[in-house]
Structures are given as structure tokens and as C-alpha cells.
Amino acid sequence: MASPEAILRARLNAVPRGISAWKQFEDVATDALQHLLVPPLTDPLRQARSYSGIDRRDAIFPNRNHGVPNHWGHLLRELSARMIVVEYKNYDSQEIGKDEVNQTRSYLTKPMGNLALMITTKEPNHAAHLKRNTVYSEEGKVIVFLRVEHIKEMLYMKERGEDPSDLIMDAIERFYITWE
Known about the structure:
Layout: H1 4-14, H2 22-37, E1 45-49, E2 56-62, H3 71-79, E3 83-89, H4 98-106, E4 115-120, H5 126-139, E5 142-147, H6 148-159, H7 165-178
Parallel strand pairs: 3-4, 4-5
Antiparallel strand pairs: 1-2, 2-3
């Protein structure tokens, strides 16, 4: 019998690339992150809208790790990461650029905190990386780019009994090292 992690990897592999399958990608990737990160995070709020309905975040994972000595407690203190905003980009031929970074940045309000994960099917372009650096320089907001391959590796980590959030911390630290 296949492990839950193997089933989630197979589901991720089965999603067609491209905007037409955005909902399928979002659902499967959120299921994977929920399996990987809850607990210590709390169950995600899917398609969470602001009061006016103008803003719609793909998923938000509440972080209630106040004073807890784990990665999420650290990120809550360091980045005020009260809510982990997750945006999904299931792009095929379209570039992931600065507009996608700006959209994600706009969701990082004071009550949400300063950490977002952008889960992508392809590497964001050079302009996206530059914009992400500018967002951090000007606003102290961290947007972590994670590709589907990273989510699959996190699933392998969980299978081995390792903490999958180590990969997220590694990505944040790599961003800090390369930021200029």
C-alpha cells in the first residue's frame, strides 16, 4: 500500500501544467502542505477573501506557535509570520515575473505578517527575483519561491521522519545569503 506521501506526489505529478488546471494544482498542493505542516501550523483557510472581497489569497496557514521553540515559532518572532500566505502559480508557457511577486506582496499586511510562500511549476524569472529583493529591502517582507520539486522533496523528508519545514528554513536562509 502506498504511503500518504507517495499518493500526494502522484497527485502532484498528475496535475496538467497551465492556468486551465489552476484549481486542481491549488487543491493538491494545499493538501500536500497541510499534510506536511499541520501541525505545528493550523489547518489552512482556502480561498480566503478580505472583507470587501477584493483580495483572495489561495491559502493561509495560521501560525499559533507563540513561544514554541520550532521553526514556525522562530518565524513568528523574526517576521511576524502570524499567517503563512501561500500563492500558487501553475504556469506552463507564461513567465512568473514581478507582477506575480507584487500580487503576493500585497497580501502581506500587518495582521498577516511578513512571510509568503509562492508555490510554482517553474522557476520565477529574473525580474521576479529582483522584485522579491526590492520588496524585502523596502518592506521587510520575505517571499519564498518553492517549486513543485521542493514540495515533493518535503514529502520524502516526512517519509524519512525528518522535519519538512527544514526545507523552508533553508530556502529563507539562502534568500538572506543571496539578497542584495
